[in-house]
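Lab notebook, bench 4. Still working through the backlog of constructs that have no structural model yet. Next entry is a single chain of 280 residues. Request: give me the structure tokens for it.
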Amino acid sequence: MKSKPPVNIQLTHPAVWLLALILLLVAGTGGAFAQTGGNYDLTWWTVDSGGSGGGIGSSKQVSGGSYELLSTAGQPEGPSSISGGAYTLKSGFWPGSVPNFNTYLPVVMKTILHPPDLVGSFTLSPAGPNFNAGSPVTINVVVTNQGDFPVGGFWVDFYINPSGTPTVNVRWNDLCSLNPCYGLAWYVSSLGARQSINLSSNNPAHNYSIWPGYFAGGSTTLQLYVDSWNPGVSSGSISEGDEGNNLYTYPGGIVVTGVTSSGGSAATVDLPPRPARLEE
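Model written out:
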């Protein structure tokens, strides 16, 4: 028995294409069907990029009754439009055919967190600047953490007539220039973000301070250094965003008359070794 030669169907005639499309649509579940009847005849559909498209007489046309849709409107790429009678179809999505409305978007802000930054200042009571040697004076210190992170323990030193500019790891008693030599130190165990702490000459770290409650004669310069002591570490105990603002100098200085210093070399200050951290 001879086998039959294969059937070669040439899908070139429009009628064959239409038949194939109808069979495909019928075979597919939920398929789309072309519609005709009444005053409307859907002969072609497409999704283009917008614009008036084929125009009158084009095969890309949907018509029926008193209406004609000469092209579809897709993305807003072209300014062209099609119109007839009282109707106009413009390409794109609602181009100029609806009122303007305000659209409010949420505000998105990026929060920038700043590293710890310690600064200090002080006031005197009485305010001065003129004092008598031996007259009671209270030193009121304020230390602030300007950063967004809390910090652990650190030292604060108060210098009276220092022999040089205070820097980190140079204690007040390392820079004595008067005899007798007075100075104070405080240990702050912790300080929260954006918080301040008040320190007073009435409550220093007593083992590391010498303060009789008044200035010695001849005192002129008063300075405060925050985060002053952590041997071997150039940034002190706290790594700060700004290490250059830890020194505060009393504006204008003071004048102390009455009992004067004995002159000559400063008295030897006998203080115990200072730890980097003080257990309280």
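Notes after review: Residues 43-93 form one domain. The helical segments are 14-27. Flag for follow-up if needed.
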